[in-house]
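Input record, target 12 of the design panel.
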C-alpha cells in the first residue's frame, strides 16, 4: 500500500486562502518583515515548517520502535535524566 506521505509532487502548487482574519494577516506581515521576507515567502516557510513536523502518531510509532529494538537487543535504555543533567551542566 502506498502511503499518502510518499507522494512527491513534480510541480509547484498554488494555494488560495480566502477570508483570512485581519489579525492573522497583520501578524504574518510582521513576521515577514522581521524575517526580511515577502509575505509569500513567509507563508511558504510557515507551511513547510508545519508540514514537516512529526505528528503525534508518528512520534508514538518511533518511540515504540525504539523500545522494541532496545528490548530485542537487551540494551539498556539511555539514562535520560543523566543526559539532561549533562546538557544543563554545559
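The sequence produced for target 12 reads:
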Amino acid at each position: 500500500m502506498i502511503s499518502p506521505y510518499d507522494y512527491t509532487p513534480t510541480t509547484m502548487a498554488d494555494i488560495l486562502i480566502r477570508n483570512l482574519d485581519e489579525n492573522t494577516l497583520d501578524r504574518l506581515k510582521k513576521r515577514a518583515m522581521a524575517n526580511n521576507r515577502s509575505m509569500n515567502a513567509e507563508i511558504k516557510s510557515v507551511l513547510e515548517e508545519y508540514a514537516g513536523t512529526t505528528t503525534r502518531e508518528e512520534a508514538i510509532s518511533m518511540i515504540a520502535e525504539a523500545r522494541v529494538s532496545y528490548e530485542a537487543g537487551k540494551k539498556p535504555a539511555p539514562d535520560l535524566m543523566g543526559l539532561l543533567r549533562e546538557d544543563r551542566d554545559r
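The chain has a mean pLDDT of 82.
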